[in-house]
Amino acid sequence: MTKAEIITEISSKTGIEKVDVQETVEAFFKVIKNSMVGGENVYVRGFGSFVVKKRAKKTARNISKNTAIIIPEHFVPSFKPAKTFVEKVKSGNKTSNTK
Asked: Which of 5, 42, 62, 91 could hold 50 in an S-S bridge, CB 3.0 to 4.6 Å?
């Protein structure tokens, strides 16, 4: 499902204009992004947590040049779903997408 499809579905279910729904969805994502850039985690009860994880400094290899590269410590965004959300997905009726 794409962001456009989410906006269309919210608009049809609530009766709110698509433009207003789009502005709201965009503002939601902007708040999450700005909070995470500032080092804050975002918790949405019943859905999940958007958290900033710290990755430690490590040594990697460039196999084509056979040299060592130092990757400095850095932060990455991560999403951890809520337990209730995980249970709903597990028990939901879905088709297998294995190829």
From this structure: 42
pLDDT tens per residue, range 2-34: 999 999 999 999 999 999 999 999 999 999 999
pTM: 0.73
- The architecture that CATH gives domain 41-85 is Irregular (4.10)
Residue 79: which residues within 8 A CB-CB, separation 6 or more? 48, 49, 50, 51
| Pairs from 69-78 (Cβ < 8 Å, separation ≥ 24) | 75/39, 76/52, 77/36, 77/50, 77/51, 77/52, 77/53, 78/50, 78/51, 78/52, 78/53
